[in-house]
Amino acid sequence: MSLNIYGEILNEHNIRPTHKGNIADATIRLEGKNPTCGDDIYLELKVGEDGTIEDGAFNGSGCAISQASVDIMIDLIIGESKERALELCEKFMKMIRGEASPEDLDELDEAAALKDISHMPARVKCAVLGWHTMEEMLKKTDDL
Amino acid sequence: MSNILKKDFPVFEKAPCVYLDSAATAQRPYVVIDAVKEFYETMNANPLRGLYELSMAATQAYEEARECVADFIGAGSPGEIIFTRNATESLNLVAYSYALNFLKEGDEIVTTVMEHHSNMLPWQMAAEKIGAKLIYLEPGEDGTITEEEMDRKISPKCKLIAAAHVSNVLGCINPIKELADRVHKNGGVMVVDGAQSVPHMEVDVKELGADFLAFSGHKLMGPFGIGVLWAKRELLEAMPPFLRGGEMIEYVSLDGATWAELPHKFEAGTVNPSGAYGLMKAIGYLKDVGFDRIRKIEDELTARIFDAFSEMEYIHILGSDDPKKHTGIVSFTIDGVHPHDISSILDSENVDIRAGHHCAQPLMEYLGVMNTARASLYLYNDEEDVDAFVNMIRKVRGIMGYES
Ligand SMILES: Cc1ncc(COP(=O)(O)O)c(C=O)c1O
Q1: Rounded distance from Cα B191 to ligand 1 centre (Å)
Q2: Do A6 and B356 touch (CB under 8 A)?
Q3: Would you kindly state where each structural domain of chain B is located, as residue ranges?
Q4: Where in B18-95 does DSSP place strands (E)?
């Protein structure tokens, strides 16, 4: 296994996350758990009436990979529609399976820093925790 | 200095690694691997069943292993040795067959917060079913359970104490003898989880004052899938079987059955003779090396880790400050770095350590940590292993983007 994963982007988002904390006017909250690791993430999103994700934040504890991954994800989806967020989520999962195209990686922007997770099976769960949590949140609120 | 015992273990040649996770499972020497092969090549038949030569050879190997284990832990007789799959099964056997039948509502079961889940969940189950009260002894930061704590928590109603001889997180040795004396005064029994002690120190069940001792073969270099429960004969005689089926009966009719004599009463179904045979060879290897030498290796290497860690103020070791009180187990945290990241970084150089809650979540909570990293040593480790480990640990914070 290589250590490429612990690069500047991941470390920066881990040590100085932009979105760690709470947002006062969140419209959805969900806890994501990874019982084998003890990782625990509380994700909050503020979704506007037109379905745009206006703000997001997370709390909880976990390894650098799970923390940075969720922080990067929130960066990426703020300002996007729910549909676009789910699309990015799908591309992220594709990347984790090692199946993403160069265009997919482009769209994933900083999240592409986690690409090598596809070679670290023990850490896949950490990388996808936040994304899975978001997917579940947005799908649940489909019919709101 | 390198350790000449390493050459006895094929894994170090065939899948080279710095193996520091022996508390999870040990590596196996050639003698054990060869013995399992030898069993299948020359003795393979269902033991205790066939009347032909091969089956008798299998039976003999299996029973010889039982005698070897009895002798190894100072049991009164081979009939007191029950082969199980692992320590977990052994402890469950005691909870189901002993506790559920011999404890009653209002009795107290005492254990400790540092137990492995395998020595905690069976007692939670038993206490709930019986209507007994489950009480937890709390250690100090160094793992010590004090006399005062025992005075406070162990009342005359306590009829069973279950404790790890050695903690798989802190590495401390628990005061089994004192606990046993206290529970015996109440006419109760002492259950010892020897999973982390039997591989590392001479354990004599009589000296220990135990009534039950559980351990796993795989942590003392034996095959996977073979474990041991030792118990005093009179207890085993009185207890009903745990599992029912083939090979554990004396006579069966449509109305019921009478049980086979010990130890077979507790070994329902086809047993694991190759595992037992391999375990016997592991015990032989362990004795050849000798516990004094094992202890010396582990203590020196633990001290070497402590020395190196003392220069890194961002590292915190759990448990005692004295490396001699760790039984080769060093659980630690690094400020700002999650244990899973530590272990991934070490894995990049094939340094194998454990990260997580170590199946002791209540202890983690009690100590106020979510997770820890753990390096655990055994007789094949050497200074080169420790230095490779420490050198990687020195780099961890840098790799994670910290200045120092
Ligand atoms: C103290 C202790 N008890 C019990 C066990 C359970 O052993 P096994 O999983 O082999 O049943 C372990 C192993 O991790 C242990 O360290």
Answers
A1: 14
A2: no
A3: 4-20+290-399, 32-286
A4: 18-19, 81-84
- Closest ligand 1 atom to residue B216 Cα is 10
**Chain A contact for B371, CB < 8 A?**
yes
- Residue carrying the six token digits 């020497």: B29
Does residue B50 or residue B393 have the better pLDDT? B393
A36 contacts B338? CB cut-off 8 A: no
Mark whether B68 is an active-site residue.
Answer: no
Q: Does B119 sit in the ligand 1 pocket, CB within 6 Å?
A: yes
Give pLDDT tens digits for A16-44: 999 999 998 999 988 888 777 777 889 99
Domain count, chain A: 1
Structural domain including A115 reads: 3-139
pLDDT single digits (tens) B278-289: 999 999 999 999
Whether B22 is in the pocket of ligand 1, judged by its Cβ within 6 Å, is: no
**Average confidence (pLDDT) over B314-343:** 97
A105 in reach of chain B (CB within 8 A): no
ipTM score assigned to the predicted complex: 0.89
Question: What does the pLDDT read at residue A34?
Answer: 78
Q: Whose CA is nearest to atom 16 of ligand 1?
A: B168
Please tell me the distance from the alpha carbon of residue A26 to that of residue A137, in angstroms, as a whole number: 12
Nearest CA to ligand 1 atom 15: B195
SS3 track for B22-34 = CCCCCCCCHHHHH
Please check whether residue A144 lies inside any domain of the structure.
no
Residue A11 sits in a domain whose CATH number is 3.90.1010.10
Cβ of B112 less than 6 Å from ligand 1: no
Q: What is the number of the ligand 1 atom nearest to the C-alpha of B219?
A: 10
pLDDT of residue A144: 42
Q: What is the pTM of this model?
A: 0.94
Question: How many angstroms separate the alpha carbon of residue B186 from the centre of ligand 1?
Answer: 28
- Flag whether A42 is in a domain: yes
Segment B6-43, tens digit of pLDDT: 999 999 999 999 999 999 999 999 999 999 999 999 99
Determine the topology of domain B32-286 in CATH: Aspartate Aminotransferase; domain 2 (3.40.640)
B184 in Cβ contact with B190 (< 8 Å): yes
Q: Could you tell me the two tokens for A90?
A: 């799908």
| Helix pair angle (B383-399, B291-310), 10° resolution | 30
Q: Which amino acid is at B315?
A: I
> In terms of DSSP bridges, do strands B133-137 and B81-84 run parallel, antiparallel, or are they unpaired?
unpaired
Nearest ligand 1 atom, CA B87:
11
**Looking at domain B4-20+290-399, what is its CATH homologous superfamily?**
Aspartate Aminotransferase, domain 1 (3.90.1150.10)
